Amino acid sequence: MSDVQQRVEQYLAAWNETDPAARRAAIDALWTENPIYVDPLGVAEGRDAIDAFIAAAQGQFAGLVFRAAGAVDAHHNVARFTWELGPEGGEAIVVGFDVATFDDDGRFDRVTGFLDKVPA
């Protein structure tokens, strides 16, 4: 597994982490000091806002898990990857893809998300 693939797996694991302290520790380890997350549902600037954004998504989609859907495509500190959200082992309810930029240490600096499939 490539280093970028591992980072994306860790990123998705942070989205699934329901323990607030463990989730925050993952965010602090994975993201730069002043990161930005953007998707059609909102903008989160900074680690605190990203943590709150993830917690809100967990509240909205309680019991569902994020998982990678395919390999990560990456070059020059930029990666794109498809993810799914659904019940463990079940069909995805939401499908999207993210484009991430990394700093030179491999930490997420900006993630822009897109939604391809959403519930009706």
Multimer state: single chain
Secondary-structure element series: HHEEHEEEEE
Radius of gyration (Å): 13 Å
Main sheet: strands, sense, barrel: 7 strands, mixed
- Look at the structure and give the mean pLDDT: 96
Low-confidence stretches: none
Helix/strand structural class: alpha+beta
> How many individual helices?
3
Q: Give the overall silhouette.
A: globular
Strand content is 35-45%
DSSP strand tally = 7
What distance lies between the first and last C-alpha atoms, to the nearest angstrom?
35 Å
Helix content: 25-40%
How would you describe this protein?
The protein has 120 residues and is of the alpha+beta class. The chain is built from 3 helices and 7 strands. It has helices spanning 3-16, 20-30, 47-60; strands spanning 31-39, 42-45, 65-68, 73-75, 78-86, 94-102, 108-117. Strands 1, 2, 3, 4, 5, 6 and 7 form a 7-stranded mixed beta sheet that branches. A hairpin with a 5-residue loop joins strand 6 (94-102) and strand 7 (108-117). Helix 1 (3-16) runs antiparallel to helix 2 (20-30) and helix 2 crosses helix 3 (47-60). The protein is globular and about 40 Å long.
